[in-house]
Amino acid sequence: MIEIGLHALGIGAGARRDVIDAVAVSAEAAGFATLWAGEHVVLVDAPVSPYPYAADGRIAVPADADWLDPLVALSFAAAATSRIGLATGVLLVPEHNPVHLAKQAASLDRLCGGRLTLGVGVGWSREEYAALGVPFARRAARARDYIAAMRKLWRDDPAEYAGEFARFAGIRVNPKPVRRGIPVVLGGNSDAALRRVAGYGDGWYGFNLPSIESAAERVRFLHALAGAAGRDPARLTVAVALSSPRPSDLPALAHAGVTQLVLVETPPDDATGVEPWIESLAERWLA
């Protein structure tokens, strides 16, 4: 049975403490599987870099909108709940120090009882990378190196790693995650992104896909890549967000191999309106 996730935290009204609490509590009570929160450290008023998830190349979030750090936002959601999954969707790994990020993620995973999934991506904004002083070139290679380093830190104590972009030896970074590792789900809809998933991801998060057919085609491609790499496609989680999802899509998505449909929604400005809003979503999607 396909799960239903909710991508509604961290931006605009979803950046308010009372709204985060209300969404988290209500979504858990209603039976949603996962709460998702994405990341951008920097937005600019007139971006040159095209946004890859919209036909016009423009991100819908205003540059002056409140946008919380996803690990901070999810920590508040974690404190308000006890069962619902928590996922970054997506966190831009190459923009972070991997040793510091490994500790932050493991800390949240410990505090939430092992409910964290680290959804990660390589980003698309040259302006954001420039502001952070991180090279935009070879960011995918940097991401792979950082993720390998973080997995070492989550598993080994002391830990040692020697890669192109990350290198350390004999260090202890604690606490460890609850499962001695955190699932790493990779975002991106391109062929290159799916090759990264097949190569070293625990799953895929496809974002703003235009149709069931496009989602199914991407899943088939991913599964073929995974099989060619000697991996069992059935062991990969597949979460997708559609641009215009309908409840009637669920059987076809499940048949295509999607394990979670993520609803991208904007919560009410007033926390008092959150519970009926969640109930309305649940009535439509979880009945």
Q: Helix/strand-derived class?
A: alpha/beta
CATH class: Alpha Beta
Any idea what the radius of gyration is?
Answer: 18 Å
Strand order of the largest sheet: 1-2-3-4-7-8-9-10
> What are the secondary-structure elements, in order, as H or E?
EHEHEHEHHEEEHEHEHEH
Question: What's the shape?
Answer: globular
Q: pLDDT below 50 for ≥5 consecutive residues: which ranges? A: none
Q: Give the % helix.
A: 25-40%
Counting DSSP H or I runs of 4 or more residues, the number of helices is 9
Task: Please give a structural write-up.
- With 287 residues, this protein is of the alpha/beta class.
- The protein has 9 helices and 10 strands.
- The strands form 2 sheets. Strands 1-2-3-4-7-8-9-10 form an 8-stranded parallel barrel, surrounded by 7 helices.
- β8, α7 and β9 form a beta-alpha-beta unit.
- The longest helix is centred in the middle third of the chain and has 17 residues.
- It is globular, with a radius of gyration of 18 Å.
- It starts with a strand and ends with a helix.
